[in-house]
Amino acid sequence: MRILNYFATTLPLLFAAMFSSPSTQAADFNGAWATDASVCSKVLVKKDNKVSLTPDAELYGGGLIVEGSRVTGTFQNCRIKLRKDDGANFHFVAACSTGVMVSELQVTAELVGDDKMTLSVAGPVSIETTYVRCSL
Residues 61, 36: contact at Cβ < 8 Å? Predict the structure, then answer.
């Protein structure tokens, strides 16, 4: 029982240290992303040098805007709390708000080339979505 208590208190600290340490070869996930290149202009708009999601972005598969530790999606705004970069993969825990409630998500993003990523959200039902970087 003492061993289980030790791991229960030590492992979260170890994971926090791993996720918050910066990597020297971190992949660049910053930018505007859509689920398909053909819908970039229907999902994202640039106005006054600022990129945002269109009001009906979810009708075309949705998108993301990644700016440092902030991720804006079709239905959620997230702040990355803990992170671990290991080259092309980026593992993070994010606090996300829908405007009604805040929840924490465990996410892995894998960069496939410069302009494509796969985003996997862990949970009771794991979700994996592919995004392409949009140039606006």
Answer: yes
Flag whether the pTM goes above 0.90: no
* Residues 19-28: tens digit of each pLDDT: 334 444 457 8
Which domains are present in the chain?
A: 2-134 (2.40.128)
From 93, 47, 89, select the one nearest 69 (Cα to Cα). 93
Looking at the DSSP assignment, which residues form a beta bridge with residue 102? 97
Across the chain, mean pLDDT equals 81
Select from 72, 74, 66, 109 the least CA-distant residue to 88.
109
Q: Which of 95, 99, 101, 46 is nearest to 74 (CA)?
A: 99
CB distance 55 to 47 below 8 Å: no
Question: Which tokens in the block code for residue 82?
Answer: 């803990």
In 1-136, where does DSSP find H-type helix? 2-20, 40-43
